[in-house]
Every structure is written in structure tokens, then in C-alpha cells.
Amino acid sequence: MARIDAMEQLRQATASMADAGIRRMMILSGESVWSSQQVQTLARQHPGDWLWVGAAPELPLHCATSAMRTLLGREFLHAVFDARNGLDAEALAALAGTLKAGSWLVLLAPVWNDWPMQPDCDSSRWSEQPEAIPTPHFIAHLQHCIRADSECLLWQQHQPLRLPEFPPRPKWHAASGAPFDEQAAILNELAQMPPGVAVVTAPRGRGKSALAGMLLRMIPGKGLVTAPGKAATDVLAEHAGERFNFVAPDALLANTEAFQADWLIIDEAAAIPAPQLRKLIAHFPRVLLTTTVQGYEGTGRGFVLKFCASLDALTRYTLSTPIRWATNDPLEHLIDAVLLFDEPDVTSAPQGAISLQAIERNREGEPSEQLQDMYRLLSGAHYRTSPLDWRRMLDAPGQHFIAAISEDETIGATWLVEEGGLDEQLSRAVWAGFRRPRGNLVAQSLAAHGGSPLAATLKGLRVSRIAVHPLRQRQQIGQQMIALARTQAQQGADYLSVSFGFTNELWRFWESCGFVLVRVGSHREASSGCYTAMALLPLTAQGEALTRHEQQRLERDISWLQPWIDQPLPVIPREETTLNSDDWLELAGFAFAHRPLEACLGSLNRLLLSCDLPLNALRGRVQQRLSVEAICQQLQISGRKALLNVMRQEAQKALEKLDEQQCIALKDSLLQLQFFH
Ligand SMILES: CC(=O)SCCNC(=O)CCNC(=O)[C@H](O)C(C)(C)COP(=O)(O)OP(=O)(O)OC[C@H]1O[C@@H](n2cnc3c(N)ncnc32)[C@H](O)[C@@H]1OP(=O)(O)O
Ligand SMILES: Nc1ncnc2c1ncn2[C@@H]1O[C@H](COP(=O)(O)OP(=O)(O)OP(=O)(O)O)[C@@H](O)[C@H]1O
């Protein structure tokens, strides 16, 4: 009888959620068989789409967590998120944004008390551990948010379903189709906009896509729409009516000349790589970009920080009133609390003296306020920070933090990660390109792209992220945090390291902290449009030797690297055209193992100068920098992989010709690494 009453109450609560235009989370915590049964009952009793998100779907409409991004821009009534074996926080946030007013987001969780110590499959994406690990800090934080939230529903197995007294809410009036005030004001300005670029950013469900559709309907000339996926443009199409004209980004980029229009609309623009966006923008007189600002990767924060900041004439607009649901929506509120989407106000900052603190994670229980503030600061400043980082900060092993505090407010944050310490054989195998275990970003890269086979055996502390409040920058706060990190690292690490998107300003900062530039990648990274750079600050004699070795290698190679990198680099070249023992080792690594071409450009150039064999593939690619396609066509090679093999064979021939004995000895020692597991 009690159960029937509860189910009836649930039906009534669902009806009043639809009336009030809100969504809520229901947590089903218990054994899998039990929660699966409840899902079937709920789906039967409450009509809706009932999208299942997770592996092993138990409902007809389903989506893998990894594919959740493809549903941005779609809308559903009710959904189930299966977190019984792991919780992908980005997918959970993405799902919450697609749910219509009146929806339940049913979160399936393990038994409540077991949850914190249960291994979480999602951890394999970010913990850099060979096996899934328990994530007690994040789960404690999530459980705390759930317990503290009187608007969500926690139903545990072996306990009756009890609905709290939800406070009454005003009736919600769904949008009528006419633009909201905020939308109307922006449309008004766009109608009169001179040639240029406008960007509309907002959290989920604020009417960005609808606004773009309305613009198309309103403009006198021709408008085109592009977006990462057509499936995500339903809302835009609905509001544009007959004026909707979609072209996929690839088609547009393949032949921009073929498409003429007065306006180009790029929906969910942040999911398109910056160089491609730049190309699209350059071709059309007026462009409207829309993007979501909420901290999952590929969404707008980085876009605003990096891409928009790089455009000269850009008008920015934001939308704040939710339209897909009512204001003060309980589900949005809970997700914001769990994933710290509520960003700090950066328009003011305490100006008093600062103190620095090393922050350690609580042994148990939920994370300190301080750690939460640090994450907010970092995610506001870094285009790549996502809920994955929040989870990593909380539960991955080997993380360290330094906060700069002024008048009880966190105004600076540094996040450091332990790296390296690989055993000798493994480090050599990484150097040769045979192995690439997870994690150890800089430590492994030093081996894989640098000139020291034992580089990954050293221990490093990598500055994973650093940020200072925008109103307190250039006051030596960043430098002081690094100085403290340096002092603290001295006990266990050979060097501090950093990997960053190279800009002159950032390099000046790292240089001022004492770092030495040791590597610059040869491709611009799609998401930031920058070259990846790595720098080291040695702490021990071994660290010093490694740093000098890599610095000298860069100086020796720079005149051959620079032509691949269209950004002047602050490295003084040393002209050396003869092969030395480091070159021989590296060339053998290319010829007989799997070292990538990009990591051997200097030594390959010196090899080509020292050898009079034709070596057409190598000369075409390395000396003349012809494209892979051009060489393949010229030499009738079937593709990228086959070309690499031909180049490796040419390098073998050249080494044999120069010194057969040395070549055989190096080949033997390299091939042994192949069998190391
Ligand atoms: C791994 C990573 O996190 S890489 C990304 C780094 N973080 C970011 O880009 C986030 C946004 N930026 C910031 O938060 C800050 O600007 C930081 C962390 C980069 C630097 O912190 P700050 O406290 O501002 O730097 P600090 O005052 O210690 O600078 C020391 C020196 O570095 C150099 N420097 C720092 N910023 C700049 C800049 N924007 N342009 C030129 N030089 C600079 C200067 O030489 C400066 O000394 P000076 O001011 O006496 O000339
Ligand atoms: N003025 C309006 N009148 C009627 N419906 C509207 C209006 N503006 C937006 N909507 C509807 O509100 C919902 C949310 O709008 P929209 O999809 O444009 O938001 P969004 O900010 O692009 O969301 P997301 O970030 O989730 O893609 C959609 O169903 C859309 O059709």
C-alpha cells in the first residue's frame, strides 16, 4: 500500500515538474538487478523518450557515454544515466542539458555505502593507472551534494521510496516562438551589423540555436548554416523554417569558393578546430558563431579564452535566461554544484598581501573548499579544463597543489603531477617508439621525442596547470608559486617540467621562472592553434645533465626544425652538419625501431648531407618538405604508412653505407628492445 502511495506521489510530482518547467535528478542506489527493475517500472509508468546513457542498454533508445557529444542540441523527456560501474562526468552534464522541462534524470548508482570505495571504470580515462581505481573523494563530494540538495530524490534499495515535500513553484509558460527579450535585443543588433563576426555564448538551453534560426528567417540576403553534425541542428532548423540551408564543415572547407552567402552561421562552433574556423570566417562577410559555455571539453570556455581573444573585430553577446526549462531548475543547480560549473566572479579581486599554501587532499571525505576554489580558478583560465580534470584532481595518485591566498580568497592556483621513474628498459623502449604506456606526459615525451633513452627514468614534477586571478597578474604571484613548488620538489624530483601551448608571453613567464626550453612540436594543436612546447627546470645533477643535453640538441637541430614551425622560436642555432654519436643512436632508432620522423629531423638532415645515395623519399620529405601526398604520387607509394617504411629503409641503407659495423651493432641493441614487455 505504502509503495502504491509513493508511486502515485511520484506521478503527481512529475506532473507538477512539467507545470513548473523544471527537471530533477532521481538517484537509484542499490544492486544492479534492483535498479534495472525500477527503471523498467518508471519507464512504463511515466511516458517519455527514456534515453538510456551507458554501456549495456536496457531501454530501446540509447547512447554510449562516449557518444553523448553527438546529442548536443537534441532534446529528450526523461533519461537514465548508468553510473553503476563508473561515472563519466562530462557525459552526465551533457545529458542534463538535453532534458526537457518535466524530465527526470535517473542516475543508477552502486549501493550507497559501497560507492566511494568501488573501482570506477571512468578512472581509466584520467587516472593514468593500469586498472580502474576507487574514487572516494569525488564520490564523497557527489554524495554530499545529493544529501544537501532538498530537490533531488534519493531512493536506496531496501528503503521505501520517500518523496520530500517539494516547495510549490510558479506555473511555467513555455516559450511561444516569439523571441525572448534577450534574443530580440541581439537580433536587433545583428540586423544592423556591419561586415564582421559575432559570437553568442551561453550555458545550455538558453536559446542560442533558436536565435540563430530566427536570424536566418529575418535577414534579407542568403544565409548558410554549418555545425559539427547535422543531427544537432534540429532546433536551428525548426526556427529557421524554409531559410534553413545546411552545409557540412568539410564540404564547405573543401571548396569555400563554391559557396557564397551574406551570413554564415556556425552552430556549436567550439567543436570545430580553430584553424578551420579561421578559414571559414575569412570567406564570409558576416558570421555568427554560437557555442555553449560549460566546462566540458570542446565547449565554449576555451573558445572564448583562446579563439575569440585572437580575433580583432568581434562582437560578443551572451544569453542568460533558460528557455528549455524554468529559472532555478533543480537539475541544473545540482549539476553545477557537483561539477563546479558556477564560475567565480572575476570582475574584482582582493588586493591585500598574499600567502602561499601547499594544499593536500583530505584523507577522507569531501574535498576542501580550497580545492574547489582552485579548480574554479583553473577552469576559468584554461581552455582545456573539464570535469575530467576535477575528477583527476580529486582522486588520481601523485597530485600536488599550491594556492596563493589573499584576504581568504584563492587568487592563484598551481597543480603539479608526479611523473617519471620508469625502469631503464621501459624508458629505452619508449625512446625507440616500441612502447607508450599511459601517463607521464613530459617524462615519456622527453624519451620518445628527445635524445636521451633514459630520460623517463628520472623523476619529474610537471606543472599541469597554473593560473592567477586576472586582476592580480604580473605581480610575481605566478613566479612565487613556482618558487615554492621548486623548493618542495627538491626532495623527490630531478626537475620541474611544463608542457604548454607556445606563445611569446607564456614563454617569457616560464623563462622568468628559470625554465629551459627543450622541445617544440612540429604541428599546431587543433584545439589551441599553438605549437606544444616543453620546458624543464633542473633540480638535481641528473636533472641538470638531462636539461643541458636536451637544450643543446634543440640548438643543434633548430635550423632544420624552424622551417616546419611558422612561429619564430627563442633558440640560438649552433651550426653543426656532421653526425655525432647521439645522431647515430637516433638514426638507428628511426631506421630499425619506431621513432617518429618528427623526432629525428635534425639527425636525418645531417645524414642526408653526409651521404651521396639518392634517398628520394627522405630527401623529398625532410630536405624539400614535400607533402606526404606529393611524394607518394611522385614515387608511386601507396600511402603514409608505406612512405614511412620506405624512409626507414632508406635510412638503413645510408647508415650501412657510412659505417656498416656501427650500423649492425646499433641494430642488434635496438631490436632487443622490441622484445621487452
Ligand atoms: C601548464 C600551464 O598551465 S600553461 C598556461 C599558463 N596559464 C595561463 O595561461 C592562465 C592565464 N595566465 C595566468 O594565470 C598568469 O598570467 C600566469 C600564471 C601565466 C603568470 O602569472 P603571473 O603572476 O601573472 O606572472 P608573474 O607576475 O609571476 O610574472 C613573472 C614574469 O613573467 C613574465 N610574464 C608573465 N606574464 C607575462 C605576459 N603576459 N607577457 C609577458 N611577460 C610575462 C614577465 O617577465 C614577468 O615579470 P615582470 O612582470 O616583472 O615583467
Ligand atoms: N523564443 C523562443 N520561442 C520558442 N521556443 C524557443 C525560443 N527560444 C528557444 N526556444 C526553444 O527552447 C529550447 C532551447 O533552445 P536552444 O536549443 O536554441 O538553446 P541552446 O542554448 O542552443 O541550447 P543547447 O546549448 O542545449 O544547444 C529549444 O527547444 C528551442 O526550440
From TrEMBL:
Pfam families: GNAT_acetyltr_2, NAT10_TcmA_helicase, TmcA_N, tRNA_bind_3
Coiled-coil segments: none
Function field: Catalyzes the formation of N(4)-acetylcytidine (ac(4)C) at the wobble position of tRNA(Met), by using acetyl-CoA as an acetyl donor and ATP (or GTP).
Protein name as it appears in the record: tRNA(Met) cytidine acetyltransferase TmcA
Gene: tmcA
Domain of life: Bacteria
EC number annotated for this UniProt entry: 2.3.1.193
Main location: cytoplasm
GO cellular component terms listed in the entry, alphabetical order: cytoplasm
Residue stretches making up the N-acetyltransferase domain: 360-537
Subcellular location: Cytoplasm
UniProt record similarity statement: Belongs to the TmcA family.
Catalytically driven reaction(s): cytidine(34) in elongator tRNA(Met) + acetyl-CoA + ATP + H2O = N(4)-acetylcytidine(34) in elongator tRNA(Met) + ADP + phosphate + CoA + H(+)
SUPFAM superfamilies: Acyl-CoA N-acyltransferases (Nat), P-loop containing nucleoside triphosphate hydrolases
